[in-house]
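I have been asked to look over a protein record a colleague put together. Thanks in advance; the entry in question is below.
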Amino acid sequence: MNINKSPCLIKSNNVSLINKRVSINTMKVRIILYLLINLVILNGCSKIISLVSKNPDTEGKVNIKSKYNQDNKVFTENKIYTYEVNQENENQTINFELTLQVIPGNYNKESKVKYKYYYNLKSFSDSIIWDYIDTNKHFKWEITSVDESKDYVCIHPPRAYSLTSLELAPFPAIILPPNQEKSWETNLWVGPGWGEYSGKTIKNNYKITSLRYINSSDFIATISTTSNSKLGSSSSKYTYNSIEGFTLIKYELPNKSMITLKMKY
């Protein structure tokens, strides 16, 4: 889990979203947090169970209010998006369906998101198939968040099961209102719970490379990104529709994986 502020907190143009995260004065705090986090079995930041909330899954629940959902225009509560995922690893191809649902409540002071992974188990060998099977449901799931405001939209991508490597890529984001050639930078320090990724700083660069208005207020934009860390370089491209959200997401990752998420209508 990233134990610092969300990388979706875009503050201003060309300014790092996450400023210097670690200093000598905060080292003791990091150590304490690290020990607390490792008391819990981790599967990415989206699967950590809060000490306050024993069950973060609020799908289908009612009478849960959150001020972080009230002004959303795109990622509205209970809305479901469905994606076709194509994952090309070095020695394996995985195709599956992924759904994104905004569920009641908030997660880290952002709108709460639940991803469901509907894997085709024929993609996996018998030795690892149990990592992708839930004996109680026909899907795997994770909880994370999306941050939508009048100034920006940023979503935590799915980063569990076969998609953990997306922690190394810039999170899908756009600054509003959009401007052609607009660019900005972010830094992400990866906290405990991410194996070889933990402790690394990822430097991300974003640029709006195309912009087309559908009408006087709605638009479709393409955001191109690059990222660099000690683990290598990656690039990605996002298509953002101001009505539908992120409709196409393409990644090229340091481990040579190529991952595409395409929205189904």
